[in-house]
Amino acid sequence: MMKQFILLVSLLVFSVSWTSTSTPIQTDFKRCMSTQFSAYTKNFEIIYTPESSLYSYLLQSTIQNPRWLNATTQPLLIVAPFHESEVQAAVLCSKKYDLQVRVRSGGHDYEGLSFLCQTPYIIIDLINMRSIDINVEEETGWVQSGATLGELYYAIAKKSQVHGFPGGLCPTLGIGGHLSGGGFGTLLRKYGLAADNVLDAYLIDVNGRILDRKAMGEDLFWAIRGGGGASFGIILSWKIRLVRVPKIVTGFSVSKTLDSGVTKLVHRWQEIAPYLPEDLFIRIVIVGDGFNKAVQVSFNSLFLGEIDTLIPLMNKTFPELGLKFEDCIEMSWVESTVNFAGFPNGSLVEVLLDKKQLFKSNFKAKSDFVTEPIPINGLEGIWGRFVEEEIAIMIMDPFGGKMNEISESETPFPHRKGNLYNIQYLKKWEKNGVRESNRHVYWMRSLYKYMGSYVSKSPRAAYVNYRDLDLGTNNQDNTNYLESTSWGVKYFKGNFKRLAQLKSKVDPENFFRSEQSIPHYK
Ligand code: FDA
Question: Which residues form a coiled coil (predicted)?
Fold first, then answer.
C-alpha cells in the first residue's frame, strides 16, 4: 500500500525536483546523484528534501517508537532508492559532501539510530527495495533488506506449507536491521538465529562497490550476520536458507496471576524450558498491571507437531503447567506467525503484509541473558516492581537446543551455550513529553539495576537488536576501542575485538558510524 502510494506520487513528480528553497548542499547532493547514477534509467522520484510534500510522511512512516517522532534532528534529505545503483550513488555523494548516512530498513531500532543523527546527515531508506524470491526446490530465498519479516513469512507460505524461516515475532521488522543484528523468534531452539541461516548477501561497501559473499570475503560476511547493522556498509539483499516445518504445528497460551502460585511455576520453567526437545518453544510474557495491582504471567508456546504429541510431552516434562487440550490450537506455521504477532485467532494471513505495527507506543527497552535460574525471592522482587506500573513488560525467551550447538565465535552473536534464556524488559507509555519519558526511563533503569545480581556477569551481556544506549556510546568524531568496550563487549563478548579489527580494515575513514557503530581497533 505504502509502496503504491510512493510510486504514485513519484510518477506524478517524475524526476528529481530542484526546488528553489533547497540549500546549496542539498542542491549539490542532488546534482551529484544525477551524475553518479546516470547509467541507470531513473523513472521515479527518489530524493526527498524537507520541502517535498512526502518528506515528513516518509520520515515518520516506519518509526516504530513514537518517542522519536519529535526528535530535534532531521535529515537534510531522504533517499529512497529503487535500484542498487542509486544506493551506490547515495554513498558516494554523501562521502563527497561529508554527510553522515543513516540506513533504514524497517525503522525498528530501539534508539532511533536508523534515522537520527547529531551531525548533518541523510537517510538512505530501503523502503522501495523489498523484493522476495523463494526457491522451494533449493530451499533458499533472496530477500531485499527493505522487505518486512511478515512479507517474507507470507512469501514462503505462498510457495510451501512445509518451510519457514527462523526470524522474530513482529511482522513489521525490516530484514536489513533484523538479520544484521541476529534475529530470533519461535524457531530459535530448533534452527538458531535468522543470521545463522544466511547463505550469501550483497553489500555496498564504503567505496560504493557491490560485493557478494565471495567478493567481500568470509571475514566481512561473518561480521554482517549479527555484528549490528550499519557499521560495515549497506546490505542490499540476503540469500537465506529456508527451514523445514511440519504442515501442522500447535500453539498455546496459558495465563496465570500471582495468586495462582505462579512464582513457583516461573521458577520451574527456568529449569525446564532450555532443556526441552528443540521442537518445543515456551516463552514467558509478564505484564504489570499497576491499576489493579496485579501481574499477569503468560506461557506462550509453539510446538512443531500436533496436539496429540504435545499433550503427553507436556505431561511428562512440565506437568506443573497443567496444559489442557482446549488450551491448544493446531494451525499452519504461517498462521502461528500471525498468532504470535498478537493478531486475534482466525485473522487472515494477509495481515502479515500490513505495515502498521500493532500496539505502537512510546517505549524504553533493555535486555539481559540469564545463566542461572533466578531464585524465588528474586522473582518476588520483580513482581513487587511490576504491580506498581501500568505497562511494564518482561519477555523471557528460552535458549538451548540448536543455540547450544553453535560456537560463540561462529557469528558475532555470542550468546550461545550456557544461556538459559534472554530477557527483554519493556516500559511503555502513552503520553508524550520529556518529563513523562524521564519518569519511565528512570523506572526501567532501576529495574535493570535490581536485576544485576540475577543475570549474566563479566560481561553483563545484552542483545544488540534490543539496542540500549545506556550501555555506552561512541564519541562520534573519535571512536575509541577501549571506551567502546563498555557496550561492545556486552553485545559481542570476545567477538568485539575481531569486529573492530575488521572495521579498521574495511572502513578506514570510519564513514559508517553512529553512537554504537563498531570502532577501529587501536
Ligand atoms: P532499522 O531500520 O531501524 O535498523 C536497525 C539498525 O540496522 C540501524 O542501525 C540501521 O542503520 C541498521 N540497518 C538497517 N538496515 C540496514 C541495511 N540494509 N544495511 C546495513 N545496516 C542496516 N528482535 C528479535 O530478534 N526478535 C523479535 O521478535 C523482535 N521483535 C521486535 C518487535 C518490535 C515491536 C520491535 C520494535 C523490535 C523487535 N525486535 C526483535 C528488534 C529488531 O530485531 C531490531 O530492532 C532490528 O534491528 C530491526 O530492524 P529494522 O530493519 O526494522 O530496523
Answer: none
- Spatial separation of the C-alpha atoms in residues 112 and 505, rounded to whole Å: 27
Euclidean distance between CA atoms 327 and 319, whole angstroms: 14
> With DSSP H G I counted as helix, E B as strand and the rest as coil, what are the percentages for the chain, rounded to 5?
40, 20, 40
**Preceding peptide of 414 cis, ω within 30°:** no
Taking CA atoms only, the protein residue closest to ligand 1 atom 16 is 176
Task: Give the residue numbers marked as catalytic.
Answer: 466
C-alpha cell at 408: 560463540
Ligand 1 centroid to residue 182 C-alpha, Å: 9
Cα 326 from chain centre: 33
Q: For 367-386, what is the mean pLDDT?
A: 97
Contacts of 462 (CB under 8 A, 6+ apart): 366, 367, 368, 369, 468, 471, 487, 490, 491
- Give distance in angstroms: CA of 171 to centre of ligand 1: 11
Nearest of 225, 148, 150, 270 to residue 409 by alpha carbon? 225
What are 196-247's pLDDT values in tens digits? 999 999 999 999 999 999 999 999 999 999 999 899 999 999 999 999 999 9
Which ligand 1 atom sits nearest the alpha carbon of residue 109? 3
pLDDT in tens, 392-424: 999 999 999 999 999 999 999 999 999 999 999
Q: What is the model's pTM?
A: 0.95
Dump pLDDT digits (tens) for 114-153.
Answer: 999 999 999 999 999 999 999 999 999 999 999 999 999 9
* DSSP per-residue codes, 220-269: HHHHTTTS-TTSS-EEEEEEEE-EE--S-EEEEEEEEEGGGTHHHHHHHH
CA distance 464 to 474: 15
As a whole number of angstroms, the distance between CA 299 and CA 208 comes to 47
Q: Is the pLDDT of residue 292 over 80?
A: yes
Q: How far, in Å, is the centroid of ligand 1 from the Cα of 230?
A: 11
Closest ligand 1 atom to the C-alpha of 103? Answer: 11
Give the residue ranges of DSSP H helices in 392-494: 402-405, 434-451, 481-492
Which atom of ligand 1 is the closest one to the Cα of 181? 47
CA distance 344 to 337: 12
Q: Say how far residue 129 (Cα) sits from the centre of its chain.
A: 18
Q: What is the pLDDT of residues 42-76, one digit of tens each?
A: 556 899 999 998 999 999 988 888 888 877 789 99
Comparing CA positions, the residue from 374, 167, 132, 151 lying closest to residue 267 is 374
d(CA 500, CA 179): 19
- How far are the Cα atoms of 11, 87, 119, 123, 124 from residue 81, in angstroms, in the given order? 14, 6, 22, 11, 8
The set of protein residues with a Cβ atom below 6 angstroms from ligand 1 is 64, 102-110, 113-114, 126, 145, 168-170, 173-174, 176-178, 180-181, 183-185, 229-230, 234-235, 357, 465
